[in-house]
Specification:
about 230 residues, six-stranded mixed sheet, 6 helices, Response regulator receiver protein
Amino acid sequence: MLHKSVARIIDAGEHIVDLTDSIAAMVQAIETPNPVRKSVALDPVLETAVDRLETRYDNLGFEWDPTPEVDVQVLSDQFLGIVIRATVHTLVECSGVSQQQIVLRPFRTETKSDGCFESESRSRSRSESESQSRPESDPEGDQRIANTDGKSDDRKGGNETSAGFDLVAPTLEKAEVKATVDELNQGSDIESILVQTFLDRYGGEVRVICPENDGEEPVLRVELDAAE
């Protein structure tokens, strides 16, 4: 009983610290509506986030899975770590996952793009080839929620390089990951609003990547602009 009480006090204290950090970050965002993005190395930010998350959640394990091939750099700012922790918190709350290992994995990818992507909740054009390649029977097969802040996307034609991080847990179902994406995009609690605010600032988006093979887990991907 004493152990549980102490654990609850520690958890409450960590939550208060995270809320304080989140509110401070949002105040800064309001005061500087035109942010200057800079190149940020993602691996050390994820490593620090894992340390903070392990302190907060005693019923979950967290693992930072670095990419050995390349040092992943994204365009963001000093608040990226807070955004990562807020995203994980929303995933935990929406899925109810416990006694599991959540993996935070950076990525960098280059794809050919003939146009822009379509947001489910905000209008954004989609290339004709993408529209034809996705089966009508599974519109959620690769759900993408984007924040564009009313700005047009000038990344048309050629190659498009993006980077960010994935969240993966063995027991997560597609519906749980989708619910997390919906909450991150439309939720009204402090963590969701923070993620929405900073994805707008970073030009980022949240998407669900569904497995192609049975036995693989769905992935929650936070995609940002890659730094050159």
